[in-house]
Amino acid sequence: MGDSKDENEKFQEELIGLDPHDPETKAFADHLDKMKRQRPGFTVEGYLDGVQDFADSANRTTGHQRLVAVIVVGLILLGVLLTIWFALGDILAIIF
Question: Which parts of the chain span the membrane according to its record (predicted)?
């Protein structure tokens, strides 16, 4: 199986002619690894990997892209807080 290859051998065809010790080449190889990585789509681990990729990308950006990422996270947190608020209200209405 092709899974036993180490990181240097994975993308030999894509990295022909590039210096393997160059930081930009290593970053490009990491990008290719992210693009070709297969992860479970409908599991908690798959969702958390997606959130981790989003957080890493948001931390590297600046300007308008970072602002959009902060707004998206804020809207998600607002939705979670409203859901919890309404659920607690319903629970308290049932109990009392």
Answer: 67-88
